[in-house]
Automatic annotation (TrEMBL):
EC supergroup of this enzyme: hydrolase
Keyword Nucleotidyltransferase: no
Domain Ppx/GppA phosphatase N-terminal: 57-374
The protein's name in its UniProt record: Exopolyphosphatase
InterPro entries, alphabetized: ATPase_NBD, GppA/Ppx_hydrolase, Ppx_GppA_N
Pfam families recorded: Ppx-GppA
Alphabetically ordered keywords of this record: Hydrolase
Enzyme Commission no: 3.6.1.11
Residue span of region Disordered: 1-39
Entry GO MF terms: exopolyphosphatase activity
Organism this protein belongs to: Roseicyclus elongatus DSM 19469
Transmembrane segments: none
Length: 385
């Protein structure tokens, strides 16, 4: 399974700029000033992933954002993609149905500033362009397929408020439906109180060497084209529940072999190390640990779990079996078929980088899209998080 960066070229390929001389001398013109966004403006971010369609509509509030409306629906866009390499008609129809609801919400709130993105399923599908045209024709929404680096970068930006001022080495893990992004960041040269803000500034790019501010150094990043949906599909023929889980976890751990930001990564992970996990898998495990029969974001986002607590929840899932997980209210109907592939990924990650704690983030690509838009428009206050 190929990764989304080349080993030889390094993680940050530099674009080569070409300059075409003008045919006639340029006429000096003073550019018209861009209208400054109103801090009361609403912003939207839509993430169409391999499994879900999710949208947030929010307003800047101080250095954070205030959510005005949201939408989330499992559309299983990537169902069958592993075998056929194409988005099926049924999958596209489910996604278009969800996007029509999103369009109505955007119109209702009169949102003008938005980014609507698609990720791994559309990156891989041979008929992605056909699907994008279908969405535009049937919903009026212009979807943009983003590349793995931007997806990883925005996931990191969304987690900025959860970064401890004591963190010197940070690993952010985003477990998606079709891919998993890992980003290792060195914060040791950033003053402690500046560390969350330094993470936020990564929306400008992982290789933002020209920044005048203290820099968070991205040591390495990787996008593995395996997520909860694609890993589940890969082992759907294995009937034994425990054996399927073990095989999924082993296979994902194999994909981590080449991602080692330091020769002594395990040593680096001992002091001042923080791992933040952002995904439906991580938040579901956290909700199960807390015994929440009704999900409460305020109790989950920012929770720190020990590796023993995570292992205990995963062992409970295994003991329940498929029928028990289907009936467990802590898991939820949308998540119960995917929770074990996600748990296999999570357990493999914790084996690769032994740490006694994981920070849970109920945030991800959508929040990263919103923060990046608001930060670029200058409508967020530059205060401490």
């Amino acid at each position: 399974m190929s990764r989304k960066r080349s080993r030889g070229a390094g993680p940050f390929p530099r674009p080569v700029a070409t300059v075409t001389p003008p045919a006639t001398p340029p006429v000096e013109r003073r550019p018209a000033p861009a209208p400054r966004p109103d801090p009361a403006d609403l912003y939207a971010a839509l993430d169409l992933g391999t499994n879900s369609c999710r949208m947030l509509i929010a307003q800047p509030k101080g250095n954070q954002l205030h959510v005005v409306d949201s939408f989330s629906k499992s559309v299983q866009l990537g169902q069958g993609l592993e075998a056929s390499g194409r988005l099926s008609r049924a999958s596209m129809a489910r996604a278009v149905g969800a996007l029509k609801i999103c369009h109505k919400k955007l119109a209702k709130h009169r949102v003008e500033r938005m980014r609507l993105v698609a990720t791994e399923a559309c990156r891989r599908a041979s008929n992605a362009a056909e699907f994008i045209d279908l969405v535009k024709r049937d919903t009026g929404l212009a979807l943009e397929i983003i590349q793995p680096e931007e997806e990883a970068r925005l996931a990191v930006v969304s987690c900025a408020p959860l970064v401890s001022t004591r963190t010197e080495q940070l690993l952010v893990v985003d477990i998606g439906g079709g891919s998993t992004e890992l980003v290792w960041i060195d914060l040791s040269r950033v003053p402690r109180l500046e560390r969350p803000r330094a993470i936020m500034r990564l929306h400008q790019g992982f290789d933002n060497a020209d920044s005048i501010f203290p820099r968070a150094k991205v040591v390495d990043w990787i996008s593995i084209p395996l997520g909860v949906a694609t890993l589940k599909d890969m082992y759907r023929d294995v009937t034994d529940d425990g054996a399927r889980f073990a095989l999924m976890s082993w296979f994902f751990e194999e994909q981590l072999a080449e991602f080692s930001p330091y020769d002594d990564a395990a040593e680096q992970a001992r002091d001042g190390f923080q791992i933040i996990g952002t995904s439906g898998t991580v938040t579901t495990v956290a909700a199960s640990h807390l015994g929440l029969r009704r999900y409460d974001r305020n109790k989950v986002d920012g929770l720190r779990m020990t590796s023993d607590q995570i292992d205990m929840v995963i062992n409970q899932y295994l003991a329940l079996g498929p029928d028990g997980r289907r009936r467990d209210p802590r898991i939820g109907r949308d998540r119960q078929t995917l929770i074990m592939s996600g748990a296999a990924i999570l357990q493999a990650l914790l084996r690769a980088w032994p740490t006694d704690r994981l920070s849970v983030a109920d945030r991800g690509l959508r929040e990263g899209l919103l923060y990046a838009q608001m930060s670029a428009d200058g409508v967020l206050e530059d205060g401490p998080f």
